[in-house]
Specification:
Strand order of the largest sheet of chain B: 5-6-7-8
CATH architecture of one domain in chain A: Up-down Bundle
Order of helices and strands of chain A: HHHEEEEEEHHHH
Radius of gyration of chain A: 38 Å
Largest sheet of chain A: 2 strands, antiparallel
Largest sheet of chain B: 4 strands, antiparallel
Helix content of chain B: 55-70%
Number of strands of chain B: 11
Number of domains of chain B: 2
CATH topology of one domain in chain A: f41 fragment of flagellin, N-terminal domain
Structural class of chain A: mainly alpha
Strand order of the largest sheet of chain A: 1-2
Distance between the termini of chain B: 34 Å
Oligomer: heterodimer
CATH class of one domain in chain A: Mainly Alpha
Strand content of chain B: 5-15%
Shape of chain B: rod-shaped
Helix content of chain A: 55-70%
Number of helices of chain A: 7
């Protein structure tokens, strides 16, 4: 059978192919990616978009967590100070209720209690990064305002709003407890208890009952404080989880679009060898024909 | 015709035929690298014998014709393979250009969508923070800008293709007019029984070039040919060619016209079919997916923002300019109409510290659009669509290139000039010529003997 006497187009096509393969291997090695264009692996390219979305959100959740963690620890330490202040008030109340103190001593204790009262108001009006953390969602106004016209001596001007922040896909945590729930809960009103204690000490009547009320309010507040403790724990464990998830996403990203460097280097070497072979074949093709042997 | 003069005449015919054969070989060697050249062979036959009594005596050799060796059916297959390969290559080149803007998973529209929703998420712990609010607007701006860029790239590509279409049509017209004029020469030669070999080569070469541009069928009609597109539009009929025209038609793009007939969508091969396919199918499909995504995002986010209250406690307004009704052109038109970051309606109750409505805004990320997919999945589907189309066309283009290459190899094995073959023929013709020349000189000697009958001996 007669063969095609001109193998050049075939050889050039082969050369073109090996050079293309070499280029692809070089691109993979230089970018470290096996998916440099969607057509390299359409499914992986689409999954990489979703992988990047999840990775972006994981980083975002971590950022949100670190933002709310600051608020949590401020709130928690504030409530800790409130508890200490209430303990101090309790000691003073017990001392006043001992029945052995002079009127002058009682007046001094009452003054001390008033100091604690204003310390408590100030603690309840604690702010974090410019926002009052016990104001519900009216965070731009100090929530507790002294008002002698009310029995507790303090008015709550915040609301009962609770903000939630997403810290994972479909996972939201509440980030605040309204000040009204912490300090002005009916039956456990911290300010009412303190105000009543002050009046009891000033009038030296019903001190034990007032002390009991402060004690109850203090226990109630400690129980409420657990919210922030839990929240901090949740934040910590979610941070650990998200870091692991991020690592997994980055591994997935590598599986989807990363390059097996050894394989790519091997492909490159192979393509270069093939290119050399094709070049050698082209170089030798036109050298020989019968004409060279005619004398 | 026998006798010495008879032998001389036979030797002369041999000399003359050998010369012509060498001329054919020489022409083959000369055109060994000429594109489209078909090797020629000399067709020789023994001369008609003469009857002398009971003897039949040969009269030498006659060159009957010089024939070009070609396989017309293979030629048709090559034309068809060229049409397909050219169409696929054109589509591939264009798609490769289209897919570059969907190449990155960490930038572009996909990443912009992720970043925008992440910016809302960042606002949640501190909803009245103006810096974070500005971050949301900036992310929205980037998103809108990248939608605009993608839409305008597609549009630019479409209008560039329009220009290519016009250029290709004018190439088609130039080729068909050349083919028609060659056809005229061929029929002239054929009617006077001459070999039109190289003209047919030229014509075939032109038809193959035409096949690279448009789908074309060759219908032989007597001594000439008729060329039509596969839907029957006549391009060439004998020596008459019919020019195609372009005119701006529906969709504001160049349509291809044969007279008053619009043949744009009926083209099936050649680069024109590839260009039309990309321009009228692929790009509009990607564009409409982008439009749907942009319109869906803008509408849903505007609705979500309207459900809450801004920093001043006023009900939220639009974040994006409302997309065009029906969504057509939404990607190109996507703009952030909100300029004041305090207008982001993060609050669900009108207080500045509430972040309740941010959850509603964030939920747009997981809310299905009109196509039933979430925004990010809609985008990843577009990436898949573009990548998959490119990868499929690339595979098809590769296999059609292999088919074309095989057909051309086959054609080369029939029509290609082999230098070895020509050298061996040359040796053969040379020896034939030498032998015939020897006959002439021998006859000459014999004639000398005959004419000078015995004189040599008398003189000596």
């Amino acid at each position: 059978m007669r063969v095609n006497p001109n193998p050049m187009p075939d050889l050039l096509a082969a050369l073109n192919q090996t050079e293309l393969e070499a280029q692809q291997a070089q691109l993979q090695i230089s970018t470290g990616k096996s998916v440099n264009e969607p057509s390299d692996n359409p499914t992986a390219a689409a999954q990489l978009v979703e992988n990047n979305d999840q990775a972006t959100f994981s980083s975002g959740y971590l950022q949100s967590l670190s933002a709310v963690q600051g608020q949590f620890s401020t709130a928690d330490s504030t409530l800790s100070s409130v508890t200490s202040a209430l303990q101090q008030a309790l000691s003073l109340g017990v001392e006043a209720g001992g029945g052995t103190l002079s009127a002058g001593d009682l007046a001094a204790i009452a003054t001390q209690l008033q100091g604690i009262q204003s310390q408590l108001v100030s603690l309840a009006n604690t702010s974090y990064q410019g926002h009052y953390i016990f104001a519900g969602t009216i965070t731009n106004t100090a929530p507790f305002v002294a008002d002698n016209a009310v029995p507790s001596g303090v008015n709550y001007v915040g609301n009962t709003g609770v903000n939630e922040v997403s810290v994972g896909s479909g996972y939201k945590i509440a980030v605040n407890v309204p000040g009204s729930q912490l300090f002005s809960a009916p039956g456990n009103d911290v300010f009412l208890a303190i105000n009543n204690l002050i009046q009891a000490v000033q009038t030296n009547t019903g001190i034990p009952a007032a002390v009991n009320a402060v004690s109850a309010a203090s226990s109630y507040l400690s129980a409420q404080r657990v919210f922030y403790g839990n929240a901090m724990e949740q934040a910590t464990s979610q941070t650990t989880y998200l870091n692991a998830a991020k690592l997994q996403l980055s591994q997935q990203q590598n599986t989807l679009g990363g390059v097996d460097m050894a394989a790519a280097a091997n492909n490159l070497a192979q393509a270069q060898t093939d290119t050399q072979a094709a070049l050698a074949a082209i170089g030798k093709t036109s050298q020989n024909s019968l004409f060279n042997y005619l004398t | 015709m026998s006798g010495l003069f008879g032998s001389l005449s036979i030797a002369l015919s041999s000399l003359s035929v050998s010369q012509q054969e060498m001329a054919t070989t020489s022409n083959n060697v000369a055109n060994a690298n000429t594109t489209g050249y078909t090797r020629e062979v000399s067709d020789v036959a023994a001369g008609d014998p003469v009857e002398v009594g009971s003897l039949s005596i040969g009269t030498g050799v006659v060159l009957q014709k010089i024939e070009s060796l070609r396989d017309p059916i293979l030629q048709i297959q090559i034309n068809q393979a060229t049409q397909q390969n050219s169409s696929l290559n054109t589509t591939l080149t264009q798609l490769q250009q289209t897919q570059t803007q969907f190449a990155s998973s960490t930038s572009g529209i996909g990443a912009d969508i992720s970043n925008f929703f992440n910016s809302l998420q960042q606002l949640a712990p501190d909803p009245s923070n103006l810096e974070l609010r500005q971050g949301v607007l900036s992310a929205a701006d980037t998103l809108a800008t990248d939608f605009n860029t993608a839409a305008s790239s597609l549009q630019t590509q479409q209008s560039n293709i329009g220009q290519n279409v016009a250029e290709s049509v004018s190439q088609v017209n130039s080729l068909t007019s050349q083919i028609a004029s060659v056809d005229q020469q061929i029929s002239n030669l054929q009617s006077s029984n001459q070999n039109p070999g190289t003209l047919v080569d030229t014509q075939n070469n032109l038809i193959q070039q035409l096949s690279g541009l448009i789908d074309v069928q060759v219908i032989p009609t007597g001594d000439s040919i008729t060329l039509t597109t596969s839907n029957g539009t006549t391009l060439v009929s004998g020596s008459q060619s019919y020019a195609l025209t372009t005119q701006v038609g529906g969709g504001g793009v160049q349509h291809i016209m044969a007279g008053t007939q619009d043949i744009t969508s009926s083209l099936t091969g050649g680069s024109l079919a590839g260009l039309v396919q990309i321009r009228d199918q692929e790009i509009p499909s990607i564009g409409s997916s982008l439009d749907q995504l942009a319109a869906g995002l803008a509408t849903n986010l505007n609705t979500a923002n309207a459900a809450g209250f801004d920093l001043s406690g006023i009900a939220g307004g639009n974040i994006f300019a409302p997309p065009p009704v029906g969504g057509v052109g939404a990607a190109a038109a996507l703009t952030v109409s909100m300029t004041d970051p305090s207008k982001i309606a993060a609050s669900s109750d009108g207080t500045t510290g509430s972040n309740g409505n941010l959850a509603v805004l964030s939920a747009v990320a997981t809310q299905p659009l009109a196509n039933g997919q979430t925004p990010i999945n809609s985008y990843s589907s577009i990436v898949f669509q573009v990548g998959n189309a490119t990868s499929n066309v690339s595979a098809d283009a590769n296999s059609s290139a292999l088919i074309l290459q095989q057909l051309q190899d086959q054609n080369g094995s029939i029509s290609g000039v082999s230098l070895n073959e020509e050298a061996s023929n040359l040796i053969q013709y040379q020896s034939a010529y030498q032998a015939a020349a020897r006959v002439v000189s021998t006859v000459n000697l014999l004639l000398l003997d005959a004419v000078n009958l015995g004189m040599d001996q008398a003189e000596s």
